[in-house]
Design brief:
Helices cover about 50% and strands about 10% of the residues. With about 290 residues, it is an alpha+beta fold. The longest helix has 19 residues, at about 125-145. The chain has 14 helices and six strands. A four-stranded antiparallel beta sheet has the order 2-3-1-4, covered by helices on one side. Strands 5-6 form a two-stranded parallel ribbon. It has helices at about 1-10, 15-25, 30-40, 45-50, 55-70, 75-85, 85-95, 105-115, 125-145, 170-175, 195-200, 225-230, 235-240, 260-280, and strands at about 160-165, 185, 190-195, 210, 250, 285. Helix 2 (about 15-25) packs parallel to helix 5 and helix 12 (about 225-230) runs parallel beside helix 14 (about 260-280).
Length: about 290
């Protein structure tokens, strides 16, 4: 099966479609090993497709090289990314890089990120530029990690929500009120404004502690408006006051909603990109190396 598909690529038959088909076929590990064994001395066939006049062929070729993760493909992917003029496929080269040890190219990737951050966003370039920024950031953070901040806000006045099983609300409320008498219950747990977090943390009857920003009560289910609201609610200042060190802070978005998974993902991406932009990347999205 993979042999036939690869042979059609070699013979220049429906190359773009067969590259995509081959990527699907090698998701099965045995097919991947079979292809690597079969292509043998023909490994250069796929990198050569990065010179194709068809942009989607270049995209599929780069992604396939990432799937195969042959060490000799790394320079081709870097060169292809550097030469690529079509913004909508540049992030595909970066996705392919995830499979390699690209540490020697980190200075180059950082320079690319700096250049992108200086681009003026327009309705035409915004989507693909932000996608490329996300991928470059993820590659850099994945290799270097993040310098995490230490929480110091135990005695800063904070409004917190203690989420708990509805049967545990009364007992949780009684415990919190021995520390802060003004605590009150709501439909998902207990709400309290306190500067004694270190005394609340040991309570065993709540499941999750969430911080709430003053002035940010309800936001629209619109990612752009939600990001504007959090930025206007002084989220960066809130974090800086409660941690050692300065921005950037790294975050992950979790959308708790009954909307479809694909719509949740789209919301999270748009929200994260807008929050990064509005805070001038004092807040940076990172799904794996996040702090909050």
């Amino acid at each position: 099966m993979v042999r036939d598909t690869f042979d059609e690529i070699v013979n220049n038959v429906d190359v773009r479609q067969n590259l995509s088909k081959l990527r699907q076929e090698i998701k099965e590990e045995s097919n991947k090993y079979a292809l690597l064994y079969y292509i043998g001395e023909k490994k250069d066939i796929i990198p050569a497709l990065l010179e194709s006049e068809d942009a989607k062929t270049r995209k599929n070729a780069a992604l396939l090289m990432g799937d195969l993760a042959l060490e000799e493909y790394l320079p081709y992917i870097i060169k292809g990314y550097q030469k690529e003029e079509q913004r909508f496929i540049k992030s595909s080269y970066l996705v392919a890089l995830r499979s390699f040890d690209y540490r020697e190219y980190l200075p180059f990737l950082k320079e690319c990120l700096d250049n992108l951050l200086g681009i003026k966003l327009t309705p035409e370039n915004k989507k693909h530029t932000e996608e490329e920024i996300r991928e470059l950031t993820a590659l850099i953070v994945s290799m270097e990690g993040v310098k995490k901040h230490s929480f110091t806000g135990f005695h800063k006045v904070s409004k917190v929500l203690l989420l708990t099983n509805r049967n545990h609300i009364p007992v949780t409320l009684r415990q919190v009120q021995t520390i802060t008498p003004t605590a009150k219950e709501f439909n998902a747990g207990v709400m309290v404004k306190t500067d004694e977090l270190d005394e609340i943390l040991p309570i065993r009857t709540y499941q999750e502690l969430l911080f709430a920003l003053d002035g940010v009560q309800v936001c629209q289910m619109n990612p752009i408006q939600a990001a504007k609201l959090l930025c206007a609610g002084n989220l960066v200042e809130f974090l800086t006051e409660r941690h050692n060190g300065n921005a950037p802070f790294y975050f992950r978005v979790e959308v708790k909603s009954k909307m479809e998974l694909s719509k949740k993902s789209e919301f999270a991406k748009k929200f994260a990109s807008e929050l990064e932009r509005l805070t001038k990347r004092q807040l940076i999205t990172s799904t794996n190396n996040y702090e909050f």
